[in-house]
Design brief:
mainly alpha; 2 strands; 520 residues; two-stranded parallel sheet
């Protein structure tokens, strides 16, 4: 079941809310939690009931393992139990996500004849696997309280964050289930949650989905099938996907936070204007924030972090981002994307080190420096997204070559005609006339308003600052002072604006389209 579907918006969500508060207001917290667990299982099983057994069995296994670890904290036996639990979790993930990829590469390298059919990937398996691994590690460290089974089950299966994150931490979510006010209906939570949800739906339906078919997808599909785009076409397709992914992930993140807020539960912010970042370090503090946190706390720091000198630090960055790339998908393009960002991060940290040696504070910069840094960071991110999106290694290389001008340049037909003799000269130099239909799809005007939105406008959590929309809100960049006047508040004006946003999005919900992060 997708957030951007009529059955979710008009049936599942309102029924789940009404019954939850009807049970909870009588002080029956456990039955209310049980209802929410059952509703979440129904939500998950709507896509493919066959995988309900997997997620239930996996949750039971991890709860039992966590109980065993809590009794054997930081002991040899506990370490063995932890290794077994993590191995089982990663083994399940590897079977569904990586077995076919590994078999293909082993066969290619050795001439063996291993065969693993491509398995259907259970929805959300990458997210809830990391979530449960973090729980097991914390149980071994003695950082887990004696949670009840229902609370743990809801922590894993809670539907707003189940399919595509955020990767929530047990300390963030389970204690909220113990608060009495969560079970009392609060109109302000409903109003704020609906506003956040429909802003996210608008981003998904009106912005993200409208960028895919006419702009980004045709160019990447052409490269996949051996058709070489020129400079203009390649950049148009890459930028279209860059914006599509931005609004798709941003929209999903908003809808998850909004749906959860209606229940009085705050999720962590997972997306915070990443294209405003002035370097790659900051980008990863803004993009998929909870994944970055997991990789830092449960991989980078245990590997040694920056405690053993710069070379070891750079190696740890590469290994961490390699796993981050593989987490997103089983393919060499994802491996390279992760290593590329590891290289970006190493260069970024090295540059900060050089600046410190010169007596500069890396945190300080002029506005001109920030503009240049943001442009360079954005260009690096776009180049990385090419490998992230391309259907094959060859297609990614073709796109990058075209974006650097190696496959020629072109001008729109109207421009070539008006140039007259100059156009003929450019043709002799290798310039081409762009296909008229493709030019109509790649006109640059659509870029301008979208870039103004992502670079100049406050994001959703900044607009909703007065209601403190999420858990980690205070740790992030706040609404600029000159834009605070437009911040949301319960009022007729905002009710009308929210209603208009909802109506526009719902009227354009003509087809069901999955969120891009569902495939990870």
């Amino acid at each position: 079941m997708l957030f951007n579907s009529y059955v979710f918006i008009f049936l599942f969500l309102p029924v789940t809310l009404i019954v939850f508060f009807a049970i909870g207001r009588e002080g029956r917290h456990r039955p209310a939690i049980a209802w929410l667990v059952g509703a979440s299982l129904f939500y998950y099983g709507w896509w493919n009931p066959a995988f309900l057994g997997l997620i239930i069995a996996s949750t039971l296994f991890n709860y039992a393992t966590g109980v065993a670890l809590a009794r054997r904290q930081r002991s040899a036996a506990g370490k063995a139990i932890l290794a077994f639990g993590v191995t089982v979790d990663l083994g399940i993930l590897a079977y569904f996500k990586y077995a076919h990829f590994l078999a293909e590469n082993i066969n290619s390298a050795t001439g063996a004849h291993l065969h693993f059919a491509s398995a259907i990937l259970p929805l959300g398996i990458s997210f809830f696997t990391f979530q449960k691994i973090a729980y097991l590690v914390d149980a071994y460290r003695g950082e887990v309280r004696n949670y009840g089974f229902l609370q743990f089950f809801l922590f894993v299966i809670y539907f707003p964050q189940l399919i595509a994150g955020p990767i929530v931490h047990h300390k963030e979510i389970i204690p909220q289930f113990a608060r009495d006010r969560v079970y009392r209906f609060e109109p302000r939570n409903l109003a704020a949650g609906l506003m956040i949800f429909f802003i996210g739906l608008f981003k998904k339906v009106i912005l993200a989905d409208r960028l895919a078919a006419p702009y980004g997808t045709p160019v990447f599909d052409a490269a996949l099938h051996g058709i070489t785009p020129d400079f203009y076409e390649a950049w148009g397709g890459a930028l279209a996907y860059t914006l599509q992914l931005y609004f798709d992930f941003s929209g999903y993140s908003d809808m998850a936070i909004g749906a959860s807020r209606m229940f009085g539960i705050r999720l962590p912010i997972n997306f915070h204007s990443p294209y405003k970042a002035v370097n790659i370090i900051e980008f990863w503090r803004r993009w998929n924030i909870t994944l970055s946190r997991f990789l830092r706390d449960y991989l980078y720091i245990p590997l040694g972090g920056n405690r053993h000198g710069p070379l070891r630090r750079y190696l740890n960055l590469f290994l961490t981002m390699l796993l981050g790339g593989l987490w997103h998908g089983a393919g060499w393009t994802f491996v390279f994307w992760g290593l590329l960002h590891g290289f970006y991060l190493a260069v970024n940290h090295a540059w900060h080190g050089v600046r410190r040696l010169l007596g500069h504070d890396p945190r300080l910069s002029s506005w001109q420096g920030r503009v240049v840094s943001r442009a360079l960071t954005f260009a690096a991110v776009v180049a990385g997204w090419v490998f992230f999106r391309a259907g094959s290694w060859d297609a990614a290389v073709t796109m990058i070559q075209s974006m650097t001008g190696m496959h020629g340049f072109s001008l729109p037909p109207e421009v070539m005609k008006k140039l007259g003799p100059l156009g003929s000269t450019l043709s002799l130099l290798g310039w081409q006339t762009m296909d008229a239909d493709l030019f109509q799809n790649l006109k640059g005007a659509w870029l301008i308003p979208l870039f103004l939105i992502i670079w100049c406008m406050p994001n959703t959590q900044q607009l909703m600052a007065r209601c403190r929309p999420a858990l980690n809100f205070d740790t992030l960049e706040q609404t600029p002072s000159h834009l605070q006047w437009i911040a949301w508040k319960p009022s007729r004006l905002w009710a009308a604006l929210g209603g208009a946003i909802a109506v526009i999005a719902l009227l354009n919900l003509s087809r069901v389209s999955e969120f891009l992060y569902y495939q990870f």
